[in-house]
Amino acid sequence: MSGYHIGRPNWLDPNFYPSEECIIKGVDNDHVLFLDVGGGMGDDVANMRLDLDIVIGDFFQEQQIKGARAYFLHSVLHDWPNKQCQMNFHQLKTAMKPGYSRLLIYENVLPEQNPSWKMTALVIIMMANAGGIERIENIWKELVEASGLEVNGIWTADGNYESVIEIVRNH
Ligand SMILES: C[S@@+](CC[C@H](N)C(=O)[O-])C[C@H]1O[C@@H](n2cnc3c(N)ncnc32)[C@H](O)[C@@H]1O
């Protein structure tokens, strides 16, 4: 994953996802601010001089952290078929506080036509190696809506497919 991150825009870069506006503003300090689900940092987190905790869990089981402001999934769902994505969404939806929590999916959102060769190659790699897939916008929306959640917006850095899909629970 370290190699995968090299040279790609970061979702916190200016002119990408408005995290200040969408996450920081209106935050309730009685709840967890941010949960990186499937973050893959392991014990490395303990060495960071930040106010971070490691939470060990299986994202197909009940989510222990309830009512966080943001649940974040980067390059996790493209490893999985639709059925497992929905199992994951179900657990996160149950933990989300309606009207407050955000689910941020940070993944490639492919165009319906003329994706780059790099993206079509990645589709094949994900299918062959993990039984997963890179998805187009409509498929992401269908997956989210079938889980009873709603897509609030999609942000993409210029010239890139990797996008932040912001999802809310209204009920
Ligand atoms: C492709 S890596 C992405 C890691 C990280 N989000 C990043 O962008 O570098 C997928 C991550 O999902 C985690 N993972 C896989 N199955 C999981 C499960 N059932 N519950 C929690 N995490 C899981 C793996 O440990 C790994 O860290």
TrEMBL record:
Pfam families for this protein: Methyltransf_2
A GO biological-process term: methylation
GO MF terms, alphabetically ordered: O-methyltransferase activity
Keyword Magnesium: no
Keyword presence, Methyltransferase: yes
Keyword entries, A-Z: Methyltransferase, S-adenosyl-L-methionine, Transferase
Gene3D superfamilies the record matches: Vaccinia Virus protein VP39
Domain of life from the UniProt record: Eukaryota
O-methyltransferase C-terminal domain segment(s): 49-148
Name by which UniProt lists this protein: O-methyltransferase C-terminal domain-containing protein
Higher taxonomy: Eukaryota, Fungi, Dikarya, Ascomycota, Pezizomycotina
